[in-house]
Amino acid sequence: MICPQCRAHNQPGAPYCAGCRLVFQPEPYAYPPQQRQPPLPVPPQPQPQPLPEPPAVSHRQAVSGPALAERVFSHRPQHFPNVFAWLTSGVFRDWRSVAAALVASWFNLPLAIVCAVAGGIAGAILGVFHGAGRAPAELAEVPVLGTALDSFLFQGGGVVGGLLGFAAGTVLGFLGGLVLPWKLAFDGDPAGALGIILGQVLVSLLMGSLYTVYGVALEGWRFTVDGGRRLSRREAELLLPIVEKCAADLGLAGRPRVLISDRRGDINACAGTRHIMLERGMLEQLQYDRDAIAGIICHELAHWANGDVISALFVRGMALPLYLMCNLFAVVRDQAANPVLRFAAGAFGWSVLVLQRFFLVPVLAVDARRAELRADRAAVVAGYRAGLRTALVQIGRTERGSNGWEQAICASHPPTELRLEAIEEQGGSYPLPDPDSPAQPFPVVVASTVSRGYGD
Prior knowledge:
- The chain is mainly alpha-helical and 456 residues long.
- The chain folds into 2 domains: 92-219, no CATH class; 230-422, Zincin-like (2-Layer Sandwich).
- It has 18 helices and 4 strands.
- The chain has a 4-stranded mixed beta sheet, sandwiched between helices.
- A hairpin with a 3-residue loop joins strand 3 and strand 4 (275-279).
- Helix 7 crosses helix 8 (190-217), helix 8 crosses helix 13 (308-318) and helix 12 (290-306) packs across helix 16.
- The protein is elongated, with a radius of gyration of 46 Å.
- Residues 28-32 and 57-64 have low confidence and may be disordered.
């Protein structure tokens, strides 16, 4: 060890220097190196995986994908293999209505009606003047017969001639207005005329299809605007089991959505393409009789399953130009303040109104009445004869209209008594008055008196 002061050499570990007596500081103890345990292995932590991104869907797929189609056409009858088969079956169920809508709206019938009236008037005028005359010279010389014939022609010849002229002019005018435009078109360009006919047919079918899709897709919204709402808990407990049982008895795999309206003045129930709506007034009129309610619901389910409303939508779409013109002329005629506008609407729109009221509506009403009888028979086959009879007797149905034409020819439902007759059981007894008919109010006469004062 070397002394740091005198630089003398000393023994290792000496406490002080032998030459200068400098006390040495002890060296710090060198601890042996500590053996450190290896760290415990840490289990690998799972790394968070990024969420998979949704597959890219194009706008076309998002709009026309099968999921959207199923949502739009939900609650449809499931016994059809697909939506197209369902729509097609309903569209062509009543071919008479389809043909009437096509001819009335797209093939010159309003013009033919105008020409028929004009021809009838012209024929009547010509018949009056030519009918009133004298007998031919050969017949006038015959005794007695000539005088009688002259008197008849002078007095009644004008009337007979006018009637015959009106009939001939009406027929010729109608045929001329119906055929003449097409004859002129074919004489000028037959290929172009055929193209016009084909185009009109295709456009009418396209309009009917688009209107049907619109009616089906927006049916829930239309029923809501009309006053329909969802069932409450109590209403669902009453009605949904009945709907399920009726659907099972009819052999239906699905069922429509059930709505209810709080209207009490109109005692009715109606079926749509994907919904049925019941009126609260109907339930109260039936006093919540489950059998009677089941008869009505089974009837409406038959309408829904048959696609009757789809047929009505398609026909209305095909005849949409005619309906729009009728509504326009009727609104202007009834509500316009200017008398000139009212006269113009009546002068130009009367043929369209006549065509709708006396041709199109009666044809559609025939198919509507047949659909009602089909739905009644379906309810009877499903086992709801008694309930349907009770409901028809309790509710009945009187078509509203201002005259007999609207109440009978244009009625969408057969008379209640004839519907009851159609569902009678063979060999059964159904005397009048019907035991299920509602009680008639007893007439009460109230006599009012004027009290006199004590001084009188």
